[in-house]
Amino acid sequence: MNTAIIVLEVLLVIGLILARQLRTQRIKDNLLKMPAILAVIGLVEASRFAGNHSVTTGQVAGVVAGLVVAAAVAWPRAHSMKVWRDADGTWLRKGNLRTMGWWAVAIVGHIATAWAGPVVFGETSHGFGGFDSATMLVYLGVSLGAQGLFLEQRLRRTFPGQRTGGPAVLSK
Predict the structure, then answer these.
(1) Torsion of CA 70, 153, 77, 128, to 10 degrees
(2) Which of 89, 99, 111, 158 is deepest in the core (most CB within 10 A)?
(3) Can you list the residues of the chain whose pLDDT is less than 50?
(4) What are the sequence ranges of the domains in the chain?
(5) pTM score, two decimals?
């Protein structure tokens, strides 16, 4: 797949994610569904890219480090969101400027690790390139999945016994 098309897809997905983060959204029991879909699409794109291009050890290391950053930054982002229960018992969430700031940190973190991986391995070609673009949906999937898990943990800790749904991995 063409790198420009991948970049356009990623920008579209990021725009949709950011718009949804700022709107009041119902907290569903399937918080991991969309992140899993994004990650699978990203893995398909990454494998297609790797099948047609040379991928270096530094690039792979950069992506792996980026995934760690994605999960780590999801924690403060999940805690920056307002969460509440409306009159009919529906759990809701809404992001704010702090949430957007944490998204900016996550995206810069992905770019920084994509650049640093090849540098650490002494590779002459480094920077944000095709492989890093191809893995961005995996990055977003991991980041959103971790955010969902952290948000669910926060709800269960803040409102003990009131939240009975949520991801199966957190069920009793």
Answers:
(1) 10
(2) 99
(3) 168-172
(4) 3-159
(5) 0.85
